[in-house]
Design a protein that fits this description.
This protein is α/β, with parallel strands linked by helices. The protein folds into 3 domains: 13-91, no CATH class; 98-277 and 463-487, CDP-glycerol glycerophosphotransferase, N-terminal domain (Rossmann fold, 3-Layer(aba) Sandwich), CATH 3.40.50; 282-456, Rossmann fold. 27% of the residues lie in helices and 21% in strands. The chain is built from 14 helices and 17 strands. The protein has helices spanning 98-119, 141-152, 173-185, 254-261, 282-295, 328-335, 372-377, 389-394, 407-413, 420-423, 432-441, 449-456, 464-473, 483-487; strands spanning 13-24, 30-36, 48-56, 61-71, 76-87, 125-133, 158-163, 186-191, 208-211, 245-247, 268-269, 303-307, 339-343, 363-365, 381-384, 400-403, 428-429. Strands 7-6-8-9-10-11 form a 6-stranded parallel sheet, sandwiched between helices. Strand 15 (381-384), helix 8 and strand 16 (400-403) form a beta-alpha-beta unit.
Length: 488
């Protein structure tokens, strides 16, 4: 009922549920009958079932209460759907003087572009390297590994950092002027995610804008691969197109990133993904595991299930996850003796899991934990759906389940670079019951993991960061960047 009307919940109102049966006899005559559903009271604890339903979009947030009970008189089900909320999500943001702020942001952006063009007249500083992100406040992820590798080289680098926790965080005019100057005069600019302020800029001839994309591999279509699909970009968009270098994990996926970002395939380099070096550093892994067990001692008392799905919706403004698809009570009753269940929900998702307090010794919300790769070390079973976390987890050769209750709908609306059912290196579950059955019976599919890893990772040596620095910061200048060099 949460997706009954064009992906929206059942409209507010009172309903009765009947079964309509149609049949055609030997004389090709159609017969139609309507029946009640019969006594379903045994399925309703306390004679009633209640749940919340939600709908999220960029312009509308709706919440409903759905009440189900048995109609003794008519021998059928009563449904009562009551709207609790309908609001424009933008009104929830504490942003006064919206029109004035919009004008000010536009003015600041124009000044930023003008300043960048002026600063381009200055010489490039060959030792200056910028790290810029709108999705992290510290040097974690790919940034951490590339930065540490640069420090090992003991060169006289001039590092500049422009880090924000969210794309919604405002940049002051002084910050914008500083960014314009350093973007214009740096030899290399590293970014790790969508970074809209930089896309209208023309990158200087002897400088590089390098995308250290936060995800690994290629799975669901993204960027310009989604032109014409809901939430896809305009063919005339400037987003991503000015990357001079994009790093990826293997030769096999260069074409997908070239298409997704709208860049020439020669600009896509299969160095490996820096943050995956973590999985080949035994000392670092041991240190992280010990730190996690010290900080969260309950992680070592039982086996750990990590639930890490991607968001639903067309983008950041409408991102949500329909937690009603999970049977909290059944998961708790069936698995609590042997497992604990961690949530690591995508940072775009605005609605919460709302874990019932009586299950607080089983379900734990780790969504605010920054680096999922660290959690993977203490995970015994990963449950995901269409998230790229499956690539990194595969390096650990541990079981994973793909809880894709909406896979048919997702294929129609989002699409993938590969056939989903052949692609996933683990069993598919569409319901909580199927998920529980796979876990209890340990029906994991390990056969595909090895070939999966070798297709999406060219090198399993923990030296991706070295290759990024060698090929981007210290390229071999005596020979051109042909396809052979791009691969290694």
């Amino acid at each position: 009922f949460s997706k009954l009307m064009n992906d929206k919940p059942l409209p507010q109102g009172e309903y009765k549920l009947f079964l309509e049966i149609e049949a055609v006899d030997d004389q090709n005559v159609k017969h139609q009958e309507v029946h009640t559903v019969g006594n379903v009271s045994n399925f309703l604890s306390n004679d009633v079932y209640a749940t919340k339903m939600e709908f999220h979009s960029a312009k509308k947030l709706m919440k409903f209460n759905l009440i189900v009970n048995y109609d003794e008189g008519e021998k059928t089900i009563n449904l009562s759907c009551n709207k609790l909320q309908e609001i424009d999500p933008s009104l929830l943001e504490l942003d006064t003087g919206k029109e004035a702020n919009r004008f000010l942001r536009k003015l600041n952006t124009s000044l930023f572009h003008f300043a960048y063009d002026v600063f381009r007249l200055l010489p490039i500083k060959s030792n200056k390297i910028v790290f810029a992100s709108d999705s992290r406040l510290d040097m974690t992820g790919n940034f951490e590994f590339v930065y540490e590798e640069l420090l090992k080289r003991e060169e006289n680098f001039d590092f500049k950092f422009f880090l924000k926790s969210s794309i919604r965080d405002r940049k002051s005019l002084s910050e914008l002027m500083s960014m314009a100057y350093h973007f214009a005069t740096s030899k290399i600019i590293f970014i790790d995610d969508f970074y809209p302020i930089i896309y209208p800029l023309k990158i200087r001839k002897n400088a590089d804008l390098v995308q250290l994309w936060h995800a690994v591999g290629a799975f669901k279509t993204f960027g310009y691969s989604r032109i014409g699909l809901p939430g896809g970009p305009s063919p005339h968009s400037k987003n991503h197109r000015n990357y001079t270098k994009v790093i990826v994990s293997s030769e096999n996926i260069r074409k997908h990133y070239a298409e997704g970002f709208g860049v020439d395939i020669e600009n896509v380099i299969a160095t490996g993904v820096p943050r995956t070096d973590f999985f080949f550093d035994e000392a670092k892994k041991a240190f992280v595991k010990e730190r996690l067990y010290t900080e969260y001692p309950f992680l070592k008392d039982k086996k750990v299930i990590l639930f890490a799905p991607t968001f639903r919706g067309n983008g950041q403004q409408s991102a949500h996850y329909p937690f009603e698809v999970l049977d909290f009570d059944r998961l708790y009753r069936e698995l609590k003796d042997e497992y604990i269940f961690l949530f690591k929900i995508h940072p775009f998702v605005r609605n919460d899991a709302n874990i019932p307090y009586q299950y607080s010794d089983f379900f734990y919300d780790f969504s605010s934990f920054r680096e999922i790769n660290e959690l993977l070390l203490v995970t015994d079973v990963l449950i995901t759906d269409y998230s790229s976390v499956c690539f990194e987890y595969a390096l650990l050769n541990k079981p994973m389940i793909f809880f894709s209750y909406d896979v048919d709908d997702y294929i129609r609306k989002r699409d993938f670079y590969y056939d989903y059912f052949d692609f996933i290196p683990g069993p598919l579950a569409k319901t909580s019951d199927q998920m529980i059955s796979i876990i209890k019976e340990e029906k994991y599919n390990f056969e595909q993991i090895d070939s999966f890893v070798h297709y999406f990772f060219d090198d399993l040596d923990g030296k991706a960061s070295e290759r990024v620095v060698d090929q981007i910061v210290f390229p071999e200048e005596e020979e051109p960047l042909d396809d052979k060099v791009l691969k290694r």
